[in-house]
Amino acid sequence: MSELYQLSKAGKLCVPAMNVNDSVTKQKFDNLYCCRESILDGLKRTTDIMFGGKQVVVCGYGEVGKGCCTALKALGAIVCITEIDPICALQACMDGFRVVKLSEVIRQMDVVITCTGNKNVVTREQLDRMKNGCIVCNMGHSNTEIDVASLRSPELTWERVRSQVDHIIWPDGKRVVLLAEGRLLNLSCSTVPTFVLSITATTQALALIELFNAPEGRYKQDVYLLPKKMDEYVASLHLPNFDAHLTELSDEQAKYMGLNKNGPFKPNYYR
Amino acid sequence: MSELYQLSKAGKLCVPAMNVNDSVTKQKFDNLYCCRESILDGLKRTTDIMFGGKQVVVCGYGEVGKGCCTALKALGAIVCITEIDPICALQACMDGFRVVKLSEVIRQMDVVITCTGNKNVVTREQLDRMKNGCIVCNMGHSNTEIDVASLRSPELTWERVRSQVDHIIWPDGKRVVLLAEGRLLNLSCSTVPTFVLSITATTQALALIELFNAPEGRYKQDVYLLPKKMDEYVASLHLPNFDAHLTELSDEQAKYMGLNKNGPFKPNYYR
Amino acid sequence: MSELYQLSKAGKLCVPAMNVNDSVTKQKFDNLYCCRESILDGLKRTTDIMFGGKQVVVCGYGEVGKGCCTALKALGAIVCITEIDPICALQACMDGFRVVKLSEVIRQMDVVITCTGNKNVVTREQLDRMKNGCIVCNMGHSNTEIDVASLRSPELTWERVRSQVDHIIWPDGKRVVLLAEGRLLNLSCSTVPTFVLSITATTQALALIELFNAPEGRYKQDVYLLPKKMDEYVASLHLPNFDAHLTELSDEQAKYMGLNKNGPFKPNYYR
Amino acid sequence: MSELYQLSKAGKLCVPAMNVNDSVTKQKFDNLYCCRESILDGLKRTTDIMFGGKQVVVCGYGEVGKGCCTALKALGAIVCITEIDPICALQACMDGFRVVKLSEVIRQMDVVITCTGNKNVVTREQLDRMKNGCIVCNMGHSNTEIDVASLRSPELTWERVRSQVDHIIWPDGKRVVLLAEGRLLNLSCSTVPTFVLSITATTQALALIELFNAPEGRYKQDVYLLPKKMDEYVASLHLPNFDAHLTELSDEQAKYMGLNKNGPFKPNYYR
Lengths: 271, 271, 271, 271
Known about the structure:
The structure is a homotetramer. The first copy, chain A, is of the alpha/beta class. Chain A folds into 2 domains: 1-23 and 193-257, no CATH class; 24-189, NAD(P)-binding Rossmann-like Domain (Rossmann fold, 3-Layer(aba) Sandwich), CATH 3.40.50.720. Chain A is 38% helix and 15% strand. Chain A has 10 helices and 10 strands. The first copy, chain A, has helices at residues 2-9, 24-46, 63-74, 86-94, 102-105, 124-129, 185-188, 194-213, 228-238, 251-257; strands at 17-19, 55-59, 78-82, 98-99, 111-114, 135-138, 157-162, 165-169, 175-179, 223-225. In chain A, the strands form 2 sheets. An 8-stranded mixed beta sheet of chain A has the order 4-3-2-5-6-9-8-7, with helices on one face. A two-stranded parallel ribbon of chain A has the order 1-10. In chain A, helix 2 crosses helix 3. The longest helix of chain A has 23 residues, at 24-46. Chains in contact: A-B, A-C, A-D, B-C, B-D, C-D. At the A-B interface, helix 2, helix 4, strand 4, helix 9 and helix 10 of A face helix 2, helix 4, strand 4, helix 9 and helix 10 of B. Chains A, B, C, D: Belongs to the adenosylhomocysteinase family. Chains A, B, C, D: Its cofactor is NAD(+). Chains A, B, C, D: This is S-adenosyl-L-homocysteine hydrolase NAD binding domain-containing protein. Chains A, B, C, D: One of its GO terms (cellular component) is cytosol.
């Protein structure tokens, strides 16, 4: 996505573009809801972990981090987080997670999970300080979050114990369990439910239809968020799966709220 | 807030205005985090309720509704919600709440809570169908959500059982427990922690300072969201209360992310 | 209860006695379910606390401690526990609570809660090390858990800030917030729902009826647990409140399980 | 286990036996803690399920049922339960689960899970009424809980879609997804963490040592529960994995409580 915005900023975007990724529905499903389940699935399929009582640090408390933290906490893990953004950090506090620097806690952790979108979030120095058996994996969108390259050095031995699972062995015998060589755990070691794919595909299709049908001049050579109403439409198409019954505004209520009875129901920035 | 936008739309706003209400930090504290606690507090101070096993319907799954639902579910209540907005409804599904129409469930409910911002969400007809002992209260921002006026009719008897608590008695002896005469429960029957007030006051003060200090021309006669960086600043000022330790970006990381090391860290629409 | 057992041991019990306190239903309601709600209620009524992000230590992870921990964690507090019993300690681990010694964490805590049944669980030395504003209260069944007597000494100033709330002020100005002078918070600063009282009263009444009606020789001068079947009967009498529908065993199923269709359904030690 | 008790009742047990299965530590790990994780793992490995918003009925609210319900609810499923035992049913209510008869809800369910230990809990008639795509599986200890035999009839087509997963196809095209042919999901489609095995093996080993070392006459030809103190010892051996620090009773405290400083700390029936 950010590439599109950079092209636009540089004046090099030659067609209108829709940032479907940041539509509320798609983002919540791709990140929060999907990762809430796949972090558990990915860890279970690859390791012998029992979640109860495990000390876990999650790097990044965005939607992916929130999903991972919720699931792990619910299953009895003791979770702390790292953040650069004070708003997300404060949310983590209010949700019951200690906000720490990675170096402060790295020695005690049983599991280290990255979901920042950044690079070198877990450094070789930190890998050196992990305890024996520590599991390291990446749920973020780049595979540079863990400095895996630094582990490919002669003093360390790599042992592939099963598909997607490497033991990195230090000279003193300490083993760190690296999953999917630092690539995305949710894609490498779990599956994405078709329900999530349906949300994504529907969002993309509607965005294309909108761009195709839009009267000339509505969209310029820029990047747009999906119109709120279409985002709501994607959601409404998926509600019958849950036998969910929406309430309709009465005329009087719509007038009182200053809303159209068919939406959109919220301002654009509402998530 | 919406009054400001209406003035602006009508071209009648004669100074720049800051919509502090929709800053992320203030909104989450005023609505989500504060109500998560005050719904429990308000109900406990006024009634004999035990939350475990109670059937509760929450009307509206915005930030206030999300806070109420989280708290009540955590204490063992069985919660369902009503919504007009398909995006919020889908979120409710994913969070484990059935999405229903009020009329479908009203007969079984032990507690009915409104947090929609709308009017006549609970009608006289629905009040007539509630079961004996049903508790009705409002956590939303208007006191028209419950049609209390319709209860002031000769066939019904009002009995004040204690401060903020009325029993409305039907001719057949059925009693509905109305809290705070339909006014805001969190303000009437609970307290707002000073921590929440501090977030609000800090946000307002910073907004005023920004408007006062801004170079001419930065703000016109319009309504603005608080700049992300100031929202982040409000959050960062409150982190020491939790002994939270923020991580700082390295130069390399900031460059990789295309971010200033001091923020803002997220796009404006990020919540 | 333990007095009865001591009398019995000493051969001084002159009538049969029923230990109603340890019936499953009564115990879960008096301790787990009731305290899960009253810990929140008691703290909210007496202090300005916001639970989110608060560091809390709960001393004792029995039924009362489990209730307190569940509720506080659910509302975003960061909770750790102390225990003497390895089985309860292991349960705390699996439920996601760090098991610590009080002295290790006392400096960082925002709230200290005792529920051990023991004495001097919080000592003067630990009170001396608490941080400014730390809240101390007792949910256990004795009021000796906090060494309150040690606080009645000339160098400390007591300031009653409202009913049930004392600030104990150290010479350097540090204030510790003592609730209910160390007596039971749930009884002093919260209310017991009538539903809990109904469970207790029903259990006691049935125990008396059983003792009165029992054929001679069934009960000797000893202490007995309530017969499982009567414990189940107490529960079944309270199920209609929740519109709960029990399943009945078919003849074939009852035979397969070796159970009477009307219970008891579990061995005596089952909780 | 129940076989041992039947032998004992019939006077046919020719050696002392230890019921290790009902030791607190082993039972909680084998049933509550292990199943809390394996229900998720088993469903994820075999199906495309997304837990959020799914309607699930769990038959039986013993330790296994409690584990399944906790995990599924935490991940956003909407869970109801069936029970024959009013005490367990009341616990389910207080934990936020509706207690229903299977026939009342079977049509709406997305997932049906048995954990009763009983037979024919899910009958052919109920299988006939399930909706298309409903997932059926067994977490209990017998594989007669689902009447699988009734599905092996000419009008139904079985289609093996992958290992451990059969689609049973009704003449009208409806498919029910049967996992592991009704055998235990946790053993067939998940893994048991070595930590759980360690608890079990340690318990068994200690029981054998106790029986071997016991002075003549301590144990007769009967079935015994593991002495509380050994149960506590098993727990204490596993605490270092969690870096858990037990508190020790002072002499004064031990005397006050009437306890030995080294345990046992609780009466035998305490769970």
